[in-house]
Design goal:
Layout (H helix, E strand, L loop, with lengths): L12 H10 L6 H11 L4 E5 L5 H14 L11 E4 L3 H14 L7 E4 L6 H7 L5 E4 L1 H9 L10 E4 L2 H6 L3 H9 L6 E6 L4 H10 L4 E5 L9 E7 L5 H11 L5 E4 L3 H13 L4 E4 L5 H12 L5 E4 L14 E4 L6 H8 L9 E7 L4 H11 L4 E2 L8 H8 L35
Parallel strand pairs: 1-6, 1-7, 2-4, 2-5, 3-4, 5-6, 8-13, 8-14, 9-11, 9-12, 10-11, 12-13
Helix pairs in contact: 2-3, 3-4, 6-8, 13-14
Amino acid sequence: MSTPTFEDLSLDQGLLRALAREGYTEPTPIQREAIPVALAGTDLLATAQTGTGKTAAFTLPILQMLSGSEPAKRGALRALILTPTRELALQIDQSLRAYGRHLPLKSAVVLGGVSSFSQVRALRQRPEILVATPGRLLDLIGQGHVRLDNIEFLVLDEADRMLDMGFIHDVKKIVGFTPKERQTMLFSATMSKAVSDLAASMLRYPARIQVDPVSSVANNITQRVLFVSMANKRALLADVLKNQPVQRALVFTRTKHGADRIAKHLSREGISSDAIHSNKTQAARQRALAAFDRNRIQVLVATDIVARGIDVDGISHVINFELPNDPESYVHRIGRTARAGAEGVALTFCDSQEVSMLRGIERLTSSPLTVMEDHPFHCPATAAMRSSPAPSRGNRPSRQRPRRGGGPRPNARRGRPRARTR
């Protein structure tokens, strides 16, 4: 059986030329399944993790359908793409411009964290496609700069992330401004009940597509776990970056302050790095991402805000300096490497407090991580904890401290000593 190509998906010549210029020849599974459905005008509910090419799965059909309409409709805002993070909004807009370079269409992006002046100016150019984060879009709607009554195509990208970030009410309010007669596409990495309920309220008889469940990890990612004490993690990170064949690394932490501290530590070690997280201004985030993308810095230290919002080619290593609280975030994190068929390495630093998180990741992915012992900070005691059974509730030691002087402990509920039996 021959490998499907983009020509087999009935895309027009302008889009095919743009895809060839980007170096894309074969559609990914989500693109093969979603593009024909979208071109048929059917609502779509798709489950696909990041890194599967889903941006092209909805931008290519929208570009084709808009460019094929009568000229009288051009110059009106007809497609809206909602996304949870600023970085993802900017990257979707870049994809629209790249894929649509040979088409007579304009797009604009509106997002928070920066002045709205340039965004309002872009809206006055009458784009056909708008990429937006929910909060800023509602602000501009309230100020009268945006009307959604001509929307024909509505996309919710990363719907589960949108709900996790508390945008559910904003999303419903925005959807209420759009016409009922529209084509709606919802993409999500996971399909929770909240996402299913949102889809039921927005989509009409949707086609359902599921590609690469969130528990799956690409085969071209080599996964390793390094057991280390928390006190030695920063030293281990510097050692790995200096002595391993790391071309470009994305390092994940759980906290914003932790990301800043690690970036400063690496700079003191002579390793070019920067941090990116939600406390940074949008301009600072864009500068850091651009420097990373252009190889001006070797390491970008990030929180999970960019686990699904960064699309940089050539990331050789993803390093989990701290394990995520949510096992699914691990899959999203390491999906930033091994893009477009390349090989990648995912290293996880695990201390004694994170062994239970490691077990959760291995249960989700059904794939134990290979232990990497040949580093100077290997902690055998923590490694031994991984193979020992997790304590059950009944076997866990009591956290109560003994009372000074002994004697009975006060009744925790009533605050007075328990009655003695005679």
